[in-house]
Specification:
Blueprint (H helix, E strand, L loop, with lengths): L1 H12 L13 H27 L27 H26 L12 H14 L1
Helix pairs in contact: 2-3
């Protein structure tokens, strides 16, 4: 009976060998992925719906706005489709910028090497910049 329990415990502790995509991700990374992932999905589905129904033309029109308010930002109107879409669109852009910076920070395209300091090279580049600037 004791051998059976030891086998079961060792079986539960074994690693399957398959690495998870989010295995090393922190809680904040997962929450940001969930937040901006849902925003990106909502923006893409809204844009696809507008394009498929033929209502995409409101993006190119003025909408009959006064000349006095041109260039000024308007408050968010939750009943207005352009207002909601622009909020989702700019949130999507912000999320993609954060995703790009996360990829650059945590998954660099080139391996990091040990930093070395060469005083002669430093002064060469410094003088070169001062002379030609």
């Amino acid at each position: 009976m004791g051998d059976y329990l030891q086998e079961k415990e060792s079986f539960l502790q074994q690693d399957t060998g398959a690495s998870s995509v989010l295995g090393d991700a922190t809680t904040s990374t997962i929450s940001m992925a969930m937040l901006f992932g849902s925003i990106i999905f909502t923006t893409a589905s809204l844009a696809a719906r507008l394009w498929l129904t033929g209502m995409w033309s409101w993006r190119n029109n003025d909408g009959g706005s006064d000349n006095n308010t041109e260039g000024k930002s308007q408050p968010l109107d939750t009943t207005s489709l352009p207002s909601i879409y622009s909020l989702l669109y700019y949130s999507t852009v912000f999320g993609l910028i954060l995703f790009y910076s996360y990829i650059c920070e945590h998954h660099p395209p080139f391996f990091h090497e040990e930093k070395t300091y060469d005083r002669d090279e430093f002064f060469f580049w410094t003088i070169l910049v001062v002379v030609f600037a």
